User: Fold this.
Amino acid sequence: MNQPVTQTPALTGLVRLLRTREGVVVLLLVTLLLLIGIFSAASPYFFDVRNGMNIGRAVSIIGIASAFTTLLMIAGGLDLSIGAVMNAAGVVAAMVLAQTNFGVPGAIAAAVLVGAAVGWINGVFIAKIGINPLIMTIAMQFILKGVTLGFSASASKVIVDPAFLAIGQGYLHLGVAAVPMPLLWMLLSMLALWFVLRFTQFGKWIYAVGGQPSACRRAGIDVDRVIIRLYTLSAVGAALAGVVLAGIQGAGIPYGAGNELSVIAAVILGGVSLSGGVGLMEGTLVAVLLVGVLKNGMTLLGISSVFQMVAEGLVLVVALTLDRLKGRL
Amino acid sequence: MTHMDIGAGVPFIDTRDLGKRYGGLHAVRDVSLSIYAGEVMAIVGDNGAGKSTFIKMLAGDHAPTSGEIIVDGRKVEFKHPRDAKAAGIATIYQDLALCENLNVTDNIFLGNELTKNPLLRLLQSRKMHDEARALLDELGIGIPSTRELVVNMSGGQRQATTLARVAKAGARLLILDEPSAALGVRETRALLDLILRFRGQGKAILIISHEMRDVFEITDRIAVFKRGALIAVRRTKETTPDEIVSLIIKGNS
Assistant:
């Protein structure tokens, strides 16, 4: 039996496709469609425009933050201060609205500035001083949590400005679908950053820095500057997500989100490697939707939220296991 | 003078009493060497002779602790590899310094991407692929697709990609550290041809190598390092492998 294993051309093609990053996205997309099929069959409430929009709103905060931090993680970075930045940004926006006359633009600008400053500090300490990103951003998480709680006296800041609330609670009416604004912000963020990754020099450098930073340095790329920009961008994304979250909640809550691990899990599920160099924005989008559909479907089927957490973890392990195994096909 | 000039003209690069100390260790001491355009020079020496430290100073990777570097008759100070690159010095290390996750074109243009729209800096992908193709053909480098990822390529193809990048950047001095270490016979042949082609274009080439056969085949001069010092410079035509080996080991011939 010395015959080589025979494979049909179609199968070989499939194997080759799955080895590429586009293949990961395709596989995730197929899984997403399967899940949608299963939940649609199992629950009469699942396959419905309004439920779809609910899923969209539910994933939007994670989605916005994921979009920005995808760039950072492709370059090999890691940001665990995302949740703390979201809270700080929400509180800052609410306080600017309540205590100044700068209005909605001022509130958003202040939140983004806080995010940019935090991210820039993360980036400088990581790129210039050489502190491990994990340690630096965890430390920043503690610092920021403390400052936010102290600054707000541990009290939620209620927001009443209707224009600000519309950021989180408004709808864009498109035919039968009422698209929640948070979903729109998420899709716009992803579209803009997808464009950056795919078509710009900065996007190319993100992949290059994630692949071989020393090669980039020798090629004259200012790697430190790229890294500092990406940490800044990641925190700005978290701040924008925090603004939208404050809009949804109608308040800046200093101890609200602690969701950086969900964000990072989604990015990794989407095919970004922790060691950097690979990944696509399309993957992050599909992964974020996949997690949202999974949670929503299980809720509709009456599965407890306790098991939903278990399921989110299992999905990640299964996905990464398949990713490892496909190299041996 | 410990070195011999090969002829008329100003050397592309001169080092004057260049030295590097690491604490108590004198890795390179008082090296004065001139390298001319259109010449291939080998640097040979035992492990720890200071060859790598010497080229790293030329490449801007390490700052010298004494002496100076002169390029085109002007004193330069390299604070960063960028500075050396700007002066026309390109270094190709053993690890080849490619981004394996990117394709051939991306690597050739790395850091010098062709873009339009100064604000967004949009990549001109088609144009870069076309130029990369033309460059590879001109250099006689056999790489089937410029869209191939480096991770899927052979050692020789990677090296060729690195050299194509250097050629693209318009380097005037190429420094190669053990270029044939990971290559097969045919790939080494292609590499030597490529080096000679670069010499024909008037570039200066500095190569660190243990391969005496390669050294004698393509170089014009050979510089011998021992314990951090430059102990001899010989014209390749006027010496023998035996003499060079003797210099490397015993320090005299």
